[in-house]
Specification:
mainly beta; seven-stranded antiparallel beta sheet; five-stranded antiparallel beta sheet; 1 helix; rod-shaped
Length: about 325
């Protein structure tokens, strides 16, 4: 019986490998009764006749295979900043069984990484096929799930699952971190069972279940690498001086503008440039450019009413501030 069961499992597994590696094909559902009869024909020359003899019927019932596979599908480690939020890794979860089955999907931090990745809230999204890539909001938003949710799969179904993480602060450039996505059978009796184990009456419609190669759970690791920075910019009116020495914004008043750049995280930025087209109601005040408190000449930076200042190459984290004056017409 054990030998027959193992051969049955190997046959189904071979078919599953064909599915994963090539075109999908139908699998035999559990509970199917397969009958087979052999036929022997022979001739007796002395009687000048041909005879046929049928064998006894060989019959068996197809059991339910429960098996799964998880695959990380990003082409390389996903680039993130430190800190960073809601950074997805892309996985495929395969139901390799011949029946519908439910799996518990869980993502967790893989210990030992230099850049700690912690599951976000919500931690998981299932691709809905409306728009490629993770869609957090809008009409094409993918299905969000709490970590540890039970997800139903049809027989042989493959789902794209995004595991979303927050990246802790303080990680150095090129630091790496990883998470694990696990698909565990919702049948607790399968957990820890050796491949090929037959479990009585726990499958579809009370059928027996055969545990596949995954032994109750499958998992894959996916990685992040810190090579990015989060850049934000803000512009404000730092002060106003009117023609009487007061601070009213009227015709002839001089406005001090301040443009700030804040780069969080870790990474190298090149060609950092600030471009500011002034409103038509104002005109630039000559020789008023200050970058991080250092005066800059107007030449090559002021063209008409547009200001362009090249900050240059910077390494995050950093803050840089540009100030200049404009007169209200």
């Amino acid at each position: 019986m054990k030998l027959q069961m193992k051969r049955w499992l190997q046959t189904i597994a071979a078919g599953v490998l064909l599915l994963v590696g090539g075109a999908a094909h139908a699998v035999t559902p559990p509970g199917t009764i397969i009958n087979n009869v052999a036929r022997v024909t022979y001739t007796m020359p002395s009687l000048a006749s041909t005879f046929t003899v049928n064998s006894t019927i060989a019959t068996f019932q197809v059991l339910e295979l429960v098996d799964a596979r998880v695959q990380w599908t990003d082409t390389s480690a996903v680039i993130v900043s430190s800190p960073d939020t809601y950074k997805p890794l892309t996985f495929k979860v395969f139901n390799l069984g011949n029946a519908a089955h439910s799996f518990v999907l869980t993502t967790a931090t893989l210990p030992g990484g230099q850049a700690k990745a912690t599951p976000s809230t919500p931690a998981l999204y299932v691709e809905n096929g409306l728009q490629s890539g993770l869609q957090l909001t809008g009409p094409n938003a993918d299905l969000s799930l709490a970590n540890g949710s039970v997800v139903d799969f049809a027989a042989q179904e493959v789902k794209t699952v995004y595991a979303v993480s927050d990246i802790a602060t303080g990680a150095a450039f090129n630091a790496q971190g990883a998470i694990t996505l696990t698909a565990r059978s919702a049948l607790t009796s399968i957990q820890g069972a050796a491949p090929g184990t037959q479990l009585s009456g726990v499958g579809t419609s009370g059928l027996d279940v055969v545990v596949g190669h995954f032994g109750g759970s499958a998992k894959a690791d996916g990685g992040y690498i810190v090579q990015g920075a989060i850049v934000s910019t803000n512009k404000r009116v730092a002060g106003v001086v009117d023609t009487t020495g007061g601070s009213k914004a009227g015709s002839g008043s001089v406005v001090t503008y301040e443009v700030s750049i804040v780069a969080q995280g870790t990474g190298h930025l090149s060609d950092v440039t600030i471009t500011d087209p002034l409103p038509a109601q104002t005109e630039y005040v000559a020789s008023s450019l200050l970058l991080d408190g250092v005066a800059l000449p107007d030449a090559g930076r002021v063209s008409g009413n547009t200001i362009t200042v090249v900050v240059g190459a910077k390494t995050a984290p950093f803050t840089s501030t540009l100030q200049f004056k404009a007169r209200i017409r």
